[in-house]
User: Fold this.
Amino acid sequence: MTLLQIMPEDAPQTITVHSDDLDVIRKELLRIGVRFARWHAARRLPADADDSTIMNAYRSHIDHVSAESNHRVVDIARMTPASPGPGQPRHKEHFHDEDLVRFVVAGAGCFYLHVAGQVHAMLCTAGDLLSIPSRTKHWFDAGTRPNYTAVRFFQDDNGCAARFLPDSIAARFPAFDELTVAP
Assistant:
């Protein structure tokens, strides 16, 4: 389930917005310059789809995003319990010098956006496209047993290097596993 939870940066236990309504999510994210959309595959994908199959299923969407945002490199990122990805499952707060654009193909992951004194915990699931403006402070968490496959967009072959913040606030906020526990 796609979910947005907004908390003040100095009071992570205080939830000011908690919604799974896609219209509410879209509006709240637009307020901070983040684009959110839902994509549908041209055809049903098997659970074990390879990179080429994924790229072909979303080709028209990928081409549109690449053309409108000058992203010339597109790849597939996967995180599983056996291969959790770079660093720890929960990353430190950082930013990039280019827009961060991700489309979740399978599984789920949470992007925490630290903007204007608030943290927007955006739990993305299959079908969600998130476009985060450059220099937006954020971190990502796919949980202790990650299951996440995403299409990533980059402006060049070097990817978008992360610039880590020395005083990350990530550890003070509910982790992916806490956000996904049913109340």
Notes: Residues 3-169 form a domain with the Jelly Rolls fold (CATH 2.60.120.10).
